[in-house]
Amino acid sequence: MTAWLRSQGYPVHHKRVARWLHTMGIEAIYPTPHLRQGHPTHRVYPDVLRGVPSTRVHHVWSTDITYMRLHGGLISLVAVRDWCSRSVLSWAVSSTMDVGFGLEAFDQALGVARPDIFHTDQGAQFPRNDCTGRLAAAGIQMSMDGRGRALDNVFIERLWRTVQYEEVSWKDDETPREAIEGFATFFVRYNERRQHQSLDDRTPAAVYFNSYS
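^ that's the sequence the OP posted. Answer follows.
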């Protein structure tokens, strides 16, 4: 928020912004950890990323599926994110948990580039052969969260928190079509306009495309 206000011409100090947020009762809301149930026949890959920083684009991608509530029910949202730039590379929405929409997001992202490592949780969707086989065929190393370690995939969990509280919770969309239109606008804004302190107040798009310059 401090960086955004400064970009709009307001010379504010971060402590003043923090005081304003406290006065208005605005604070971050964090998702609670939970366990997903994997299928007993699905292969579980080791977590190869503990203590390993991602310092370049396409070194590590991660993905996850979350539920988003609509006025008349739930939809599933999947996204693929680059760890270094924080860019959302692809996303897809489904009214079911069919694996097809996850593969759709994979194909969109892999149509642009290929990461060295692809990180997921141990949920039943991602260890399936049609997911892992596609990545293995592309020569991509798989990595998975440790059981009960909700923060192993923290970059994607933070994205879900942002989507939920900046796009979903206040709109009350009634149909998947409305939600898809909202997500399309949100992810463009997230990549191209949202500044990140961890990126030295740059946007994900600025970091991502700067790697090609």
